[in-house]
Amino acid sequence: MAVDMKMPILIVDDYKTMLRIVRNLLSKLGFSDIDEATDGTDALEKLKGRRYGLIISDWNMQPMTGYELLQKVRANDSTKSLPFVMVTAESKVENVIAARKAGVNNYIIKPFSAEVLKAKLKTVLGDF
After folding, report:
1. 90, 59 Cβ separation under 8 angstroms
2. Are 86 and 66 in contact (CB under 8 A)?
3. What does the alpha-carbon distance between residue 41 and residue 32 come to, in Å, rounded to a whole number?
4. Among 10, 16, 53, 56, which is 20 to 30 Å from 4 by CA?
5. 83-98 in b/e burial notation, b at 16+ Cβ within 10 A?
6. Among residues 52, 61, 50, which one has the least CA distance to residue 12?
7. pLDDT digit string, tens, across residues 18-44
C-alpha cells in the first residue's frame, strides 16, 4: 500500500529550530500536512482534535517528555497503533530499550539527514 503523502503528521519538540528542521526535511520528502507541538502536553491536546498518521517526537522536553507522551499515546485506544518515531540527541542503550518496550516504532539520533529520516520512516510507513 502506498504511503499517503498528505496524511497529517505531528512533530513535537520544545526547540523551535528543530521543529523547523524536521518540517523542512518532511517537506523535502514530499509530506505536506505537518502540525507542530512544543511538548507532550501540547501534543496530547492536538491529538484530541485531529487524527494523525504519524508522530515524530523529541525525547527531552518539559513538562512532559516524549517518552511520557509515547506511553500516553500507547495507553489510549484511539491512538495506540499510531506510528511513533522518537528523536533524541542521546544514544543511551537504556533509552532505546525503554522506548522500544513502550512501543516506539523507530528511533532517530540527532543530528540526522533527510536520507536517514526517509530510511527510518520507510521502516515505519512503508516505501514512498
Report:
1. yes
2. yes
3. 24
4. 16
5. bbbbbbeeeeeebbeb
6. 61
7. 999 999 999 999 999 999 999 999 999
- Would you say 37 and 12 are in contact if contact means Cβ atoms under 8 Å apart? yes
Q: What is the dihedral of CA 97, 87, 12, 123, to 10 degrees?
A: -80
Contact indicator for 85, 55 with CB cutoff of 8 Å:
yes
Q: Answer for the pair 31, 9: CB distance below 8 angstroms, yes or no.
A: yes
Phi, psi for 86 (deg, rounded to 5): -95, 135
Question: How much is the pLDDT for 91?
Answer: 81
As to burial, measured by CB atoms within 10 angstroms (0-12 exposed, 13-18 middle, 19+ buried), residue 53 is middle
**Mean pLDDT in order along the chain per 10 residues (128 residues):** 92 96 97 97 97 97 96 97 94 90 96 96 96
* Helices first, then strands: H and E counts in the chain: 5, 5
* Residue owning grid cell 521502516: 123
What pLDDT score was predicted for residue 90?
82
Are 35 and 8 within 8 A, CB to CB? yes
Contacts of 125 (CB under 8 A, 6+ apart): 3, 53, 54, 83
